[in-house]
Specification:
Blueprint: H1 2-21, H2 24-28, H3 32-41, H4 62-76, H5 79-103, H6 106-109, E1 111-117, E2 124-131, H7 141-154
Antiparallel strand pairs: 1-2
Helix pairs in contact: 1-3, 1-4
Length: 155
């Protein structure tokens, strides 16, 4: 848990240093409260030196990239860029949802395939798909009584 918190503190420091090299017009579009939040929560002991020449986007933390993406979307992007970003994120969410549905599909969870090895050519062949039922089989009244009587004799 501490490592996650530390990464965000380092990311705030990186954002702060990156914002120093950004054009003043862009930085002014960010509300002062957000800048203050970044200053307040950054790790002051963390060293991150970046210049316009060395800024390539590859040396930053993933958390820093995420913060930059949010800043871009909320304060610097044009309406068309925002729309494109929303479409892309929605597509990604749908893709993840679809993968989760396929992986955890209730119809597939309760089915299993039997396989056997053919002795002639040692290949696995599927016999058929069987349904696994989740129904509890009840014992008959007489069977319960008989089991109760048996349990007395075994003690």
């Amino acid at each position: 848990m501490e490592k996650v918190k530390y990464n965000w503190e380092c990311a705030y420091k990186e954002i702060y240093e990156i914002l120093k090299i950004f054009p003043k017009e862009l930085v002014e579009k960010i509300p002062a409260s957000k800048i203050d939040y970044i200053k307040k929560n950054m790790d002051k002991g963390y060293e991150y030196n970046v210049t316009v020449e060395t800024f390539d986007g590859k040396t930053m933390l993933d958390e820093t990239a995420a913060i930059l993406a949010v800043l871009f979307k909320n304060y610097w992007a044009t309406p068309k860029q925002r729309e494109q970003m929303e479409k892309y994120h929605n597509m990604q969410r749908l893709k993840l949802d679809q993968e989760a549905r396929e992986k955890y599909d209730p119809e597939k969870i309760f089915k299993r395939e039997n396989e056997f090895i053919d002795s002639n050519d040692n290949k696995k062949d599927k016999i058929k798909e069987q349904e696994i039922s989740m129904v509890k089989k009840e014992e008959s009244f007489f069977k319960k009584i008989l089991n109760k009587i048996k349990s007395f004799f075994y003690k």
